[in-house]
Amino acid sequence: MNPAALLATVTGRREPALALLIVLLLVLIGLRAPFFITLDSFEGVLTDTSILMMLAVAEMLVILTRGIDLSLAANVALTGMAMALLSQAYPDLPVIAYVVGAMLFGAGLGAFNGFFVAVVGLPPIVVTLGTLSMFRGLVFVLSGGAWVNKHEMSVTYQTFPMNRFLGLPHLLWIAIIVIPLMWVFMRHTKAGRSLYAIGGNPQAARYVGVPVAARLFMAYALAGLIAGLSGYLWTARFAIAYTEIAIGLELVVIAACVIGGVSIAGGVGTIPGAVLGALFLGIIANALPVMGWSPFWKQAISGAIILVAVVVNSRSERRKGKIIVRRAEEHPR
Amino acid sequence: MVAGPVLLNVRGLSKQFPGVKALDDVSLRVRAGEVMALVGENGAGKSTIVKILTGIYKPDAGTIEIAGTPMQFSRPTDAWAAGISAIHQETSVFEDLTVGENIFMGHQPTRGRGPLVDWKGIHRRSAEILDRMDVAISTRSLVRELSVAERHILGVAKALAHDAQIVIMDEPSASLSRKEIDHLMVIVRQLRDEGKGIIFISHKFVEIFEIADRYAVLRDGQLVGEGNVADVTQDELVKLMVGRSVEEVFPKVDVPIGDVVLEVSHFTHDTEFEDISFTLRKGEILGFYGLVGSGRSEVMQSIFGVTRSRSGTLSMHGRPIKISSPSEAMKHGLALVPEDRQQQGAILPLSIRQNMTLALIDQLSPRGFLSRRRELGVTRDMGARLSIKAAHWDQQVDELSGGNQQKVVIGKWLATRPEVMILDEPTKGIDIGSKAAVHEFMGELVAQGLAVILVSSELEEVRGMADRIIVMHEGRICGEFSRDEATAEAIVTVASGAQAGP
Amino acid sequence: MSTNASEGRAAVRDRAAESPWSLLRRWEAILLVFLGIVFVINSNATPYFLNIYNLADSTFNFSEKAIIALPMALVIIARDIDISVASIIALSSMLMGLAAEAGLGVPGLVVVGLATGATAGAFNGFLIAGLGLPAIVVTIGTFTLFRGIAFVALGDGAVTQYPAGLAYFGQGYIGGLIPFEFVLFLVLAVIFGVVLHMTVIGRRIYAIGNNPVAARFTGIRVDRYRFVLFCLTGLMSGLAAVLLTSRIGSTRPNIALGWELEIITMVVLGGVSILGGIGTILGVVIAVLLVGMVTFGFGLLNVPGIIMTVFIGSLLIVTISIPVVIQAVRVRAAARASSRR
User: Which residues of B touch C1 (CB under 8 A)?
Assistant: First the structure.
């Protein structure tokens, strides 16, 4: 992984370095399995990774504020089940009802986290650890432990994600819309910037008038909204809903953020970084079978990559620190 | 300079904290086009006033009027909106964001009426403001890369960007070099000439007489004097501040100076300090003076083994020793009362007893098992010696006053029976009573044959207590004075980097 | 100064004047009340609950988790966290399986299990205390890595051929009544309790958790302590792997899946502050029993285990909210009282 560190210092920014690394990875895979680097294959990888990329964006909002959301995957499962049951009960609903319904439902779950973190002031890791169990258990309560299978969902419900518009599946289109929207939000709106301020220096954020509690609440609710949307897409795409959907995904999502350069200490991270981090994991997952490796390698490789990414991150962050002795040539002005 | 109408009118401000009356019926006025110096010792109530004026604390009683309109600040934003802007001592910045974004955070202009932040506008206006102050900082550089002085200037830029009418500068020059201070003074005058009201908080009389039009003196939370700077002398100000004359404040005890105990040679660190050499003798109080950020604390911490990456040698009683961790330093008879009492010194949520015995817990615990009886013995002993005021010894340290907290930290180290005691800013932010007790106590220490290093940014404290004074600037020793040659002017000149010392 | 000193000596008491009632306000007391309620409800709901044999057997459900909760409490009190414990179980159990297939005997298997756990913990400790990386991210990484290695080694297969002698650890009884696992947990709980509350080591762990910087300035080798705590958590996870493998007699890569969050929940429920510095072993033990008894009761009533998680999740949020809310109410009341003056 030295190339990454090297590139990071050369380009001074993490995202281009990660992008180059991904290209390098693709080239290496392409040498062994040329058909992996075709447009069709790319489309497949991107579609497969869409949900992970969106969830990484959601998780980033929260990590940026020095928090963490362990309940995102459980939110996916609960919202997915709720929408699947909705489709079973009212098969004639238009797709937009599921999409909007999922976003509202997910945002509600996120707001529940947000209330305890922002208003009551509990540590995010404990709150979302609690809601992780609650949401996951509620999936079972909601469904009575039964699965919602393909034939029980309405056709509109399950075909929407993989139906195509202008040659690309809707699922991919949604990611193509959501990610840039979130980028604009985080890069170019006051609310988005305030999350950086809160994570960078909560005290100072309060001094300059950032409504800290309201913005924290927003971050969790928004993360929940994206998770909810992902919940519908997941159950619809795979045409099945059950209790264990997306189990363990919460930690994969955090891993994507870490690889993408989002600092767990808060205040540092970008949407492109989080998305590239997710893409990196997605490519590896998709490349393993192509390379003729057992899919059982996926987890071990991901783990190793996370650890390398943490080490690289800490190296690039360590440059800070006060500098008292100023050499003559370093004197400004 | 003719001052304009009254901008800020504060009447009868009071604020009570558990156990302390921080402010007691204080009234102040600041006119447009006027610099008002707010002076007082640490703990006199200056920062409480600043925090009330910026909406961080709510006063228990009193009124604030701005340009004749009564105001109530329930949030920092309220004060900000009313036109008050403070440049805080601990500069509150966002290190990973750009200079431009820092200046406008929380108040970013948007493009048209839409929700999008006008980045071009931010950078253009930031550049204009920085230009106006004649500083060459790129608005796109990260604050992480700025020096301490540049961060202060960033604070001023924030106030300007917001078009604040009342600017509070809380010890703006504490860590600046002479040249940087001169530049700051130019900016302050510029603000004044634009008709702003400025509250200038400083410990340095030179600056107060140079820049301020009026003064107000606080002592123990009360306003004890105010007037025109032109009508007052430095001695009178000091007398107002401390409530007695300077000689009485420092009970310097004359102790015969013995052999060299500690010798530090050529201590060098990559970024923090360079070529530090000095000796310390038995019975001596060695003062280390320098601006905040001149590398004094960093040197002390590396002697004590907290900072590992450095070169240079250390010897005690002429024998070379190696220290690579605080526990090794303790074995060699060193003790360090660190600069930051709350972060580095005391463990606030633990009890007085647990704090006091932490450094020698091994000796107090037979076969590793804690003994409450032995712990209490040491705690009672030290508590009495330092006259610590508390309800009981199991009381949490964060419930004590600053002075008593500091006494607990000193007691913790004293209990280890050290040969060399390093006190880094031991009286920062504690009340006058405790301060005097700490000074008196230092005299007792050297009388018992200890050697003491006193690091302080209070010139009077170093001059009053130390036998010898070493002055640091930008990580280097730039002068050494004996007690007799240590005039305030000479030390300040050397410390600000203007010239090399004798 | 001398008059001050004598005044000081007279004025400062050795300890706070506490009424015996203040004991009831302690966290452990609240948990005990909860535990009592659960007992009453359960024994009214089903006659099978108060059967001594059933009660004793119910401890099989939580003893292994409880054994990891002990070192986890120390890690969290010292301001760290270890997400990788369940993955360490998978790794240890996998290596035990491979060793068993290679024909290793019972003592050898136990050593393999414990040594693997300790090594995995040392790896965490090196990255966290040695390189100074954040514990939560590192252990999320090793959480993925360790179980990933188990997947690489076993795929979708399983090891089921263990020597018969291994069964005692996870299935045996002491005195024909109390499971060996539970007795082991109780013994370990006493040892952990004594170390944390009565020795220099425990005092230093609290110091580190409350203020790692000041602890370092006071000569405590903070990083060494943190390293050892991660090794210890690894070792106990290895022990749990031996017990669990013995109890179920087989190893799959998804063994003990999701346990890490259950264990952390138990610890936090036991009154250990996730922010470090606060907590007792007694609290953790009561919380473990509470969770165990609730699970057992639900099991007897044929309530699916997954419903349990809703209950535990809610319990976690409610219990940690209580002190925060009480504090807020108290502050507000105090503010009102002072403004009235």
Answer: 387, 437, 440
**What are the backbone dihedrals phi and psi of residue A167, each rounded to the nearest 5 degrees, phi first?**
85, -10
| Closest CA of chain B from A312, distance in Å | 18
CB-nearest to C313 from A133, A243, A251 is A133
Q: Quick one: pLDDT at residue B76?
A: 80
**Which token pair is B248?**
């009485």
pLDDT of residue B144: 84
Q: Which amino acid is at C302?
A: N
Q: Report all structural domains of chain B as residue ranges with CATH numbers, in order of start.
A: 6-244 (3.40.50.300), 249-348+419-495 (3.40.50.300)
Which CATH code of 1.10.8, 1.10.3470, 2.60.40, 3.40.50 fits the domain covering C26-299+306-330?
Answer: 1.10.3470
Domain, as residue range, for A69: 50-311
Question: Tokens representing C273?
Answer: 């502050």
Q: HEC profile for C127-191?
A: HHHHCCCCHHHHHHHHHHHHHHHHHHHHCCCCECCCCHHHHHHHHCEECCCEEHHHHHHHHHHHH
Are the Cβ atoms of C16 and B338 closer than 8 angstroms?
Answer: no
Q: What is the model's pTM? A: 0.86
- Cβ separation B326–C215 shorter than 8 A: no
Domain boundaries, chain C: 26-299+306-330
State the number of CA atoms in the 13 A half-sphere of C275 facing the CB: 10
Kindly report, residue by residue over B27-82, the tens digit of the pLDDT.
999 999 999 999 887 667 888 898 899 888 888 999 999 988 898 888 888 888 88
Look at the block and give the residue holding tokens 């109890």. Answer: C247
Number of residue pairs across A and C with CB atoms under 8 Å? Answer: 151
B contact residues 136-155, partner A, Cβ 8 Å cutoff: 136, 144, 147-148, 150
Q: Is residue B419 pLDDT above 70, yes or no?
A: yes
Residue C295 · residue C305 · CB < 8 Å:
yes
CATH of the domain at A197: 1.10.3470
- The answer to whether the Cβ–Cβ distance between C211 and B348 falls below 8 Å is yes
Q: How far apart are alpha carbons B403 and B43 in whole angstroms?
A: 10
Residue A60 in any domain: the answer is yes
Domain count, chain A: 1
A229 inside domain: yes
- Asked if the Cβ–Cβ distance from A209 to B75 is below 8 Å, we say yes
**Beta partners for B453?**
B286, B422
B472 touches chain A (CB under 8 A): no
B75·A333 Cβ contact <8 A: no
Using CA coordinates, name the residue in chain B closest to C6: B384
Name which of C26, C35, C30 is nearest C288 in CA terms.
C35
Calculate Rg over the CA atoms of chain A. 21
Contact across the interface for B76 and A190, Cβ inside 8 Å:
no
Identify the closest residue of chain A to C320 by CA–CA distance. Answer: A122
Measured over the CA atoms of residue C22, residue C25, residue C27 and residue C32, the dihedral's sign is: positive
A293 touches chain C (CB under 8 A): no
The residue whose two tokens read 């909810």 is: A228
Q: Are C134 and A251 inside 8 Å of each other by CB?
A: no
**CB < 8 Å to A248, chain C:** 257-258
- Tell me the three-class secondary structure of B398-418, residue by residue: HHCCHHHHHHHHHHHHHCCCC
Q: Is B100 on the interface with A (CB under 8 A)?
A: no
A122 lies in a domain? yes
Mean pLDDT by 10 residues, chain C (341 residues): 41 72 74 89 85 89 96 96 96 96 94 98 96 90 93 92 91 91 97 97 97 94 97 98 96 90 90 91 95 87 81 83 77 63 43
C140 contacts A131? CB cut-off 8 A: no
Does residue A163 fall inside a structural domain? Answer: yes
Report which DSSP code applies to C60: G
CB contact under 8 A, C265 and A130: yes
